[in-house]
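User: Um, any thoughts?
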Amino acid sequence: MTDEKEAVHILQQEATQLARQQEVDRVLKLSTLDPFAILQIPQTSTTLEIKAAYRTKSRLIHPDKTAHPQARQAFERLKAAETDLMDEEKRSRMLKMIEEARRELQSEWRERTWDKGEFEEQVMVRYKKIMVELEWRRRQKIKKEMAREGELSRREEEMVAEKRKRREMEKAWEESRDERVSSWRSFQAKAGSSKKKKNKKKE
């Protein structure tokens, strides 16, 4: 009887470990743009339902409880999904984008033979496309701003270098003043001396 119980316990453990590994694989296959799918909850979920789903899933795929080599990565995705959905502003923006995708597909839905499930799948495909495009635009904007800032920085550096060069030239000019004055006086003295010699010769 004890052997039978132990065998049942081992089988249960194996089944649990298999479920954990399958859940890790499931999470890793999903797009981070769809936190609802990662947590397996409807888009109408409340904050309490989001928290409850996260607790259940996190116990299942926690890196300390599964031997899956990518458990930590899946766990981080799960946490990110919960964080995104617990942020009221971010969740509201996400739902608006999903609704926008739904509106865009309404006319196509009438023309095609999609059932409700297929339509919702296409909505999420369109939503992800919109989000990817927005992210691309955001990165392009950042890239342009960085290029503009780099150009401004380069110009400022050139101006600083030009001012420094001018100051060094002015300093060098000032420092060589005594030498110039001395040279001029020497030149004047020589010129005066040569004039006197010429005058003497004329006499």
